[in-house]
Write a sequence for this structure.
């Protein structure tokens, strides 16, 4: 299980600047979600760049430097809490990237294997780790190749629901032109000792940016994304749409 953050803006800024004065509170969630951290930056008209480290974010000098100094007009941040026996290593550390696309996920598929036959061998061969999250990412890529970006995301969500169960397939998917947030989870599968809003996702618009993040830190005035919905942000206009997956 993990914590997610992502933003898009019309100006370049750091994650600390995008998140505001409460960013340290979000970073402190790595006390529990301490099995690695990663950042994907993706400026308009550019491929994403990745920075990952299989260490606890709040204890990492690299994390502190990157979040304070690395500027972009779009980024994803992931704090990992490894599921089950999955290894804590660089290959399993989010984000994952392919060409124009980068991706982070919170949750688990049970079991993960049923989705593998849905993914073409050419994409399975690209995996750098062993997580169900990375397989989920390449299922989306597989479906995008057939249907386009938004329709591909929706096709992947539908397919996962047909062949396996999951606690959460909440995810963020960033492209050079759009930012997608998948909010799809089962609250009855929240990990023990976690808050009732553990899987909830919230967004806010402020000035020239849209910021989206998991719960667990100060988010007064933010808007909750309904469960079973897809949020999309047009990066050129920052126009937001929120639509159900059964639409």
């Amino acid at each position: 299980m993990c914590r997610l953050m992502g933003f898009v803006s019309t100006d370049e800024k750091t994650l600390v600047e995008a998140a505001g004065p409460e960013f340290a509170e979000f970073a402190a969630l790595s006390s529990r979600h301490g099995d690695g951290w990663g950042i994907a930056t993706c400026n308009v008209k550019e491929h994403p760049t990745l920075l990952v480290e299989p260490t606890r974010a709040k204890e990492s000098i690299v994390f502190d430097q990157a979040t304070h100094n690395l500027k972009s007009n779009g980024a994803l941040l992931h704090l990992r809490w490894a599921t089950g026996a999955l290894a804590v290593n660089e290959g399993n550390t989010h984000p994952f990237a392919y060409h124009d696309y980068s991706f982070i996920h919170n949750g688990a598929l049970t079991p993960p294997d049923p989705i593998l036959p849905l993914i073409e061998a050419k994409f399975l061969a690209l995996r750098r780790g062993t997580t169900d999250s990375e397989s989920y990412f390449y299922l989306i890529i597989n479906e995008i190749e057939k249907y386009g970006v938004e329709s591909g995301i929706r096709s992947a969500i539908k397919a996962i629901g047909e062949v396996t169960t999951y606690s959460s397939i909440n995810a963020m998917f960033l492209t050079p032109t759009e930012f997608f947030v998948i909010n799809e989870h089962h609250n009855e599968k929240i990990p023990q000792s976690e808050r009732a809003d553990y899987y909830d996702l919230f967004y806010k618009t402020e000035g020239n940016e849209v910021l989206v993040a998991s719960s667990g830190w100060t988010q007064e005035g933010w808007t909750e994304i309904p469960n079973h919905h897809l949020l999309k942000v047009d990066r050129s206009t920052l126009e937001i749409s929120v639509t159900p997956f059964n639409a």
Notes: The helical segments are 15-19, 23-27, 61-69, 121-124, 132-147, 149-163. The chain has a mean pLDDT of 96. The chain has one domain: 2-244. DSSP finds six helices and 15 strands in the chain.
